[in-house]
Amino acid sequence: MLAIERQEQIVSQIRRNGAVRIHELTKQFGVSVETIRRDLLELERQDCLHRVHGGAVGIAVAKQYHRLEERTEENPQKKEELSEYAAGLIREGDVLMVDSGSTAIAFAKMLAEEFERLTVITYSLHVFEILKKKEGFTLYLCAGAYLRDENAFCGQWALQMLEQFHAKTAFLFPSAISLQNGIMDYDQELYHLQRAMMKHADRSVFLADSDKFEKSALLKLADVNEAVTFVTDSGLRKEILELYQENGIEMIRGEQKQ
Predict the structure, then answer these.
(1) For the ranges 3-12, 58-67, 73-82, 141-150, which has the lowest average pLDDT?
(2) Are 9 and 101 in a shared domain?
(3) Looking at the domain assignment, is residue 258 inside a domain?
(4) Alpha-carbon distance 55 to 23, whole Å?
(5) pTM of the predicted model over 0.85
(6) Do residues 152 and 25 both lie within one domain?
(7) Which domain holds residue 37?
Protein backbone atom coordinates (compact mmCIF):
# COMPACT_ATOMS: atom_id res chain seq x y z
CA MET A 1 0.00 0.00 0.00
CA LEU A 2 1.27 3.44 -0.90
CA ALA A 3 1.81 5.98 1.88
CA ILE A 4 -0.85 8.30 0.44
CA GLU A 5 -3.42 5.47 0.46
CA ARG A 6 -2.57 4.61 4.06
CA GLN A 7 -2.82 8.28 5.07
CA GLU A 8 -6.22 8.62 3.37
CA GLN A 9 -7.48 5.67 5.41
CA ILE A 10 -6.09 7.22 8.62
CA VAL A 11 -7.92 10.47 7.89
CA SER A 12 -11.11 8.53 7.21
CA GLN A 13 -10.83 6.76 10.56
CA ILE A 14 -10.17 10.04 12.36
CA ARG A 15 -13.32 11.53 10.83
CA ARG A 16 -15.35 8.46 11.73
CA ASN A 17 -14.05 7.75 15.25
CA GLY A 18 -12.48 11.01 16.41
CA ALA A 19 -9.11 9.42 17.21
CA VAL A 20 -6.59 6.79 16.15
CA ARG A 21 -3.96 4.90 18.13
CA ILE A 22 -0.49 4.15 16.79
CA HIS A 23 -0.55 0.62 18.19
CA GLU A 24 -3.77 -0.22 16.35
CA LEU A 25 -2.59 1.37 13.10
CA THR A 26 0.63 -0.67 13.03
CA LYS A 27 -1.42 -3.87 13.31
CA GLN A 28 -3.98 -2.72 10.76
CA PHE A 29 -1.45 -1.78 8.07
CA GLY A 30 1.35 -4.18 8.98
CA VAL A 31 3.97 -1.42 9.17
CA SER A 32 6.38 -0.14 11.80
CA VAL A 33 5.71 2.41 14.52
CA GLU A 34 8.13 4.77 12.79
CA THR A 35 6.15 4.55 9.54
CA ILE A 36 2.89 5.42 11.29
CA ARG A 37 4.54 8.30 13.12
CA ARG A 38 5.77 9.70 9.81
CA ASP A 39 2.24 9.38 8.42
CA LEU A 40 0.77 11.25 11.39
CA LEU A 41 3.44 13.95 11.16
CA GLU A 42 2.66 14.50 7.48
CA LEU A 43 -1.08 14.60 8.15
CA GLU A 44 -0.56 17.09 10.97
CA ARG A 45 1.40 19.30 8.56
CA GLN A 46 -1.66 19.18 6.29
CA ASP A 47 -3.91 20.22 9.22
CA CYS A 48 -5.78 16.92 9.06
CA LEU A 49 -5.22 15.96 12.70
CA HIS A 50 -3.34 16.72 15.91
CA ARG A 51 -0.72 14.29 17.15
CA VAL A 52 -0.88 13.32 20.84
CA HIS A 53 0.94 10.73 22.90
CA GLY A 54 0.02 7.31 21.54
CA GLY A 55 -1.86 8.48 18.47
CA ALA A 56 -3.80 11.39 17.05
CA VAL A 57 -7.13 13.18 17.35
CA GLY A 58 -9.15 15.14 14.84
CA ILE A 59 -9.06 18.91 14.63
CA ALA A 60 -11.43 19.97 17.41
CA VAL A 61 -14.48 21.78 16.03
CA ALA A 62 -16.30 24.45 18.01
CA LYS A 63 -19.18 23.22 20.14
CA GLN A 64 -22.14 25.44 19.38
CA TYR A 65 -23.29 27.48 22.36
CA HIS A 66 -26.96 27.18 23.36
CA ARG A 67 -28.92 28.89 26.09
CA LEU A 68 -29.62 26.92 29.27
CA GLU A 69 -33.24 26.12 28.44
CA GLU A 70 -32.12 24.63 25.11
CA ARG A 71 -29.26 22.67 26.66
CA THR A 72 -31.61 21.17 29.23
CA GLU A 73 -33.44 19.42 26.37
CA GLU A 74 -30.22 18.02 24.84
CA ASN A 75 -29.15 14.43 25.58
CA PRO A 76 -31.21 13.94 28.77
CA GLN A 77 -30.57 10.17 28.87
CA LYS A 78 -26.81 10.67 28.55
CA LYS A 79 -26.81 13.22 31.37
CA GLU A 80 -28.81 10.88 33.60
CA GLU A 81 -26.49 7.98 32.79
CA LEU A 82 -23.24 9.80 33.52
CA SER A 83 -24.73 11.28 36.71
CA GLU A 84 -25.43 7.75 37.94
CA TYR A 85 -21.81 6.74 37.33
CA ALA A 86 -20.57 9.87 39.09
CA ALA A 87 -22.51 8.74 42.18
CA GLY A 88 -19.91 6.01 42.63
CA LEU A 89 -17.34 8.68 43.51
CA ILE A 90 -19.42 10.05 46.41
CA ARG A 91 -19.93 8.80 49.97
CA GLU A 92 -22.51 9.83 52.54
CA GLY A 93 -21.30 12.86 54.44
CA ASP A 94 -19.00 14.16 51.70
CA VAL A 95 -18.47 17.87 51.11
CA LEU A 96 -19.03 18.73 47.44
CA MET A 97 -18.81 21.77 45.20
CA VAL A 98 -21.28 21.69 42.31
CA ASP A 99 -21.05 23.85 39.18
CA SER A 100 -24.08 25.12 37.24
CA GLY A 101 -25.55 24.17 33.88
CA SER A 102 -27.92 21.66 32.32
CA THR A 103 -25.91 18.61 33.41
CA ALA A 104 -25.84 20.08 36.92
CA ILE A 105 -29.62 19.76 37.02
CA ALA A 106 -29.49 16.02 36.22
CA PHE A 107 -26.62 15.58 38.68
CA ALA A 108 -28.48 17.37 41.49
CA LYS A 109 -31.53 15.15 40.94
CA MET A 110 -29.27 12.12 41.24
CA LEU A 111 -27.79 13.44 44.51
CA ALA A 112 -31.28 13.91 45.92
CA GLU A 113 -32.27 10.36 44.96
CA GLU A 114 -29.14 8.52 46.09
CA PHE A 115 -27.95 10.28 49.26
CA GLU A 116 -29.34 11.37 52.61
CA ARG A 117 -26.47 13.40 54.05
CA LEU A 118 -24.18 15.67 52.06
CA THR A 119 -22.76 19.18 52.26
CA VAL A 120 -23.12 20.96 48.92
CA ILE A 121 -21.63 24.33 47.95
CA THR A 122 -22.98 25.84 44.74
CA TYR A 123 -23.79 29.06 42.91
CA SER A 124 -26.52 27.38 40.84
CA LEU A 125 -30.06 28.29 41.83
CA HIS A 126 -31.30 25.17 40.02
CA VAL A 127 -29.05 22.94 42.13
CA PHE A 128 -30.07 24.74 45.32
CA GLU A 129 -33.80 24.46 44.58
CA ILE A 130 -33.51 20.72 43.88
CA LEU A 131 -31.46 19.91 46.98
CA LYS A 132 -33.18 22.17 49.53
CA LYS A 133 -35.91 19.55 49.90
CA LYS A 134 -33.42 17.10 51.45
CA GLU A 135 -33.47 17.67 55.20
CA GLY A 136 -30.18 15.84 55.73
CA PHE A 137 -28.30 18.06 53.27
CA THR A 138 -26.32 21.10 54.37
CA LEU A 139 -26.40 23.70 51.59
CA TYR A 140 -24.37 26.83 50.91
CA LEU A 141 -25.51 29.10 48.09
CA CYS A 142 -22.76 31.44 46.96
CA ALA A 143 -24.83 34.45 45.98
CA GLY A 144 -23.85 37.62 44.16
CA ALA A 145 -25.03 39.14 40.92
CA TYR A 146 -27.84 37.07 39.41
CA LEU A 147 -27.01 35.65 35.96
CA ARG A 148 -30.48 35.15 34.52
CA ASP A 149 -29.47 33.17 31.42
CA GLU A 150 -27.82 30.48 33.57
CA ASN A 151 -30.05 30.77 36.66
CA ALA A 152 -26.87 31.15 38.71
CA PHE A 153 -24.99 33.72 40.73
CA CYS A 154 -21.68 35.26 39.70
CA GLY A 155 -19.40 38.19 40.41
CA GLN A 156 -16.98 39.15 43.16
CA TRP A 157 -19.35 38.54 46.09
CA ALA A 158 -20.13 35.00 44.97
CA LEU A 159 -16.43 34.35 44.36
CA GLN A 160 -15.39 35.66 47.78
CA MET A 161 -17.90 33.40 49.50
CA LEU A 162 -16.88 30.36 47.47
CA GLU A 163 -13.22 30.87 48.33
CA GLN A 164 -13.97 30.49 52.05
CA PHE A 165 -14.80 26.79 51.58
CA HIS A 166 -12.88 23.61 50.95
CA ALA A 167 -14.47 20.47 49.49
CA LYS A 168 -13.52 16.87 48.95
CA THR A 169 -14.69 16.94 45.33
CA ALA A 170 -15.64 19.65 42.84
CA PHE A 171 -18.06 18.51 40.14
CA LEU A 172 -17.92 20.66 37.00
CA PHE A 173 -19.79 20.50 33.71
CA PRO A 174 -17.72 21.90 30.81
CA SER A 175 -18.94 22.63 27.29
CA ALA A 176 -16.04 20.97 25.45
CA ILE A 177 -13.00 18.76 26.03
CA SER A 178 -9.96 18.25 23.82
CA LEU A 179 -6.63 16.52 24.44
CA GLN A 180 -4.94 19.26 22.44
CA ASN A 181 -6.84 22.33 23.67
CA GLY A 182 -7.93 21.37 27.19
CA ILE A 183 -11.18 21.62 29.17
CA MET A 184 -13.29 24.49 27.89
CA ASP A 185 -16.47 26.47 28.52
CA TYR A 186 -18.25 29.57 27.25
CA ASP A 187 -19.55 31.69 30.10
CA GLN A 188 -17.11 34.43 31.06
CA GLU A 189 -19.25 35.36 34.08
CA LEU A 190 -18.81 31.91 35.64
CA TYR A 191 -15.21 31.24 34.56
CA HIS A 192 -13.54 32.49 37.76
CA LEU A 193 -16.03 30.60 39.93
CA GLN A 194 -15.30 27.36 38.08
CA ARG A 195 -11.57 27.92 38.46
CA ALA A 196 -12.06 28.61 42.18
CA MET A 197 -13.93 25.33 42.61
CA MET A 198 -11.01 23.46 41.08
CA LYS A 199 -8.59 25.28 43.39
CA HIS A 200 -10.53 24.71 46.61
CA ALA A 201 -11.29 20.99 46.25
CA ASP A 202 -9.09 17.95 46.75
CA ARG A 203 -10.27 16.51 43.44
CA SER A 204 -11.90 17.90 40.29
CA VAL A 205 -14.34 15.68 38.39
CA PHE A 206 -15.70 16.78 35.02
CA LEU A 207 -19.01 15.39 33.84
CA ALA A 208 -19.49 15.62 30.09
CA ASP A 209 -21.65 13.70 27.67
CA SER A 210 -19.88 11.95 24.81
CA ASP A 211 -20.79 14.64 22.26
CA LYS A 212 -18.50 17.14 24.04
CA PHE A 213 -15.24 15.24 23.55
CA GLU A 214 -12.76 16.50 20.97
CA LYS A 215 -14.68 19.74 20.65
CA SER A 216 -13.59 23.29 21.46
CA ALA A 217 -15.12 26.33 23.17
CA LEU A 218 -14.16 29.91 23.97
CA LEU A 219 -12.51 29.71 27.40
CA LYS A 220 -9.91 27.23 28.67
CA LEU A 221 -10.51 26.09 32.24
CA ALA A 222 -7.65 23.59 32.54
CA ASP A 223 -5.36 21.22 30.70
CA VAL A 224 -6.35 17.61 30.15
CA ASN A 225 -3.86 15.74 32.31
CA GLU A 226 -3.46 13.09 35.01
CA ALA A 227 -4.87 15.42 37.69
CA VAL A 228 -8.44 15.36 36.37
CA THR A 229 -11.18 12.74 36.14
CA PHE A 230 -13.83 12.57 33.44
CA VAL A 231 -17.22 10.89 33.75
CA THR A 232 -19.12 10.32 30.52
CA ASP A 233 -21.80 8.12 29.01
CA SER A 234 -21.56 4.84 27.13
CA GLY A 235 -21.72 6.65 23.78
CA LEU A 236 -18.09 7.79 23.91
CA ARG A 237 -16.20 6.09 21.10
CA LYS A 238 -13.78 3.35 22.09
CA GLU A 239 -10.93 4.99 20.16
CA ILE A 240 -11.23 8.25 22.11
CA LEU A 241 -11.62 6.44 25.44
CA GLU A 242 -8.50 4.33 24.90
CA LEU A 243 -6.39 7.24 23.66
CA TYR A 244 -7.27 9.33 26.73
CA GLN A 245 -6.45 6.37 28.97
CA GLU A 246 -3.13 5.89 27.16
CA ASN A 247 -2.36 9.52 28.05
CA GLY A 248 -2.89 8.74 31.75
CA ILE A 249 -6.35 10.32 32.01
CA GLU A 250 -8.84 8.76 34.41
CA MET A 251 -11.99 8.01 32.42
CA ILE A 252 -15.22 6.67 33.87
CA ARG A 253 -17.59 5.65 31.08
CA GLY A 254 -20.99 4.01 31.20
CA GLU A 255 -21.07 0.45 29.92
CA GLN A 256 -22.34 -0.25 26.43
CA LYS A 257 -25.70 -2.02 26.56
CA GLN A 258 -25.79 -5.33 24.73
Answers:
(1) 58-67
(2) no
(3) no
(4) 8
(5) yes
(6) no
(7) 3-59
For position 170, which CATH number holds? 3.40.50.1360
Kindly state whether residue 25 falls inside one of the protein's structural domains: yes
Pair (14, 97) in one structural domain: no
* pLDDT for the residue 25: 94
Tens digit of each residue's pLDDT (9 = 90 or more) over 122-158:
999 999 999 999 999 999 999 999 999 999 999 999 9
Are both 96 and 190 inside the same structural domain?
yes
Please tell me the total count of domains within the chain. 2
**Which residues, at least 6 apart from 258, have a Cβ–Cβ distance to it below 8 Å?**
none
Q: What is the CATH number of the domain that holds 18?
A: 1.10.10.10
Enumerate the β-bridge partners of residue 139: 120
Q: Which of 13, 34, 59 is the last residue of a domain?
A: 59
Is the CB of residue 119 less than 8 Å from the CB of residue 134?
no
- The residue type of 7 is Q
1 or 83, higher pLDDT: 83
DSSP secondary structure of the chain: --HHHHHHHHHHHHHHHSEEEHHHHHHHHT--HHHHHHHHHHHHHTTS-EEETTEEEPPPEEPPP--HHHHTTSSHHHHHHHHHHHGGG--TT-EEEE--SHHHHHHHHHHHHH-S--EEEESBHHHHHHHTT-TT-EEEE--SEEEGGGTEEEHHHHHHHHTT--EEEEEE--SEEETTTEEEE--HHHHHHHHHHHHTEEEEEEE--GGGBTEE-SEEEE--STTEEEEE-TTS-HHHHHHHHHTT-EEEEPPPP-
Residue 256, pLDDT score = 52
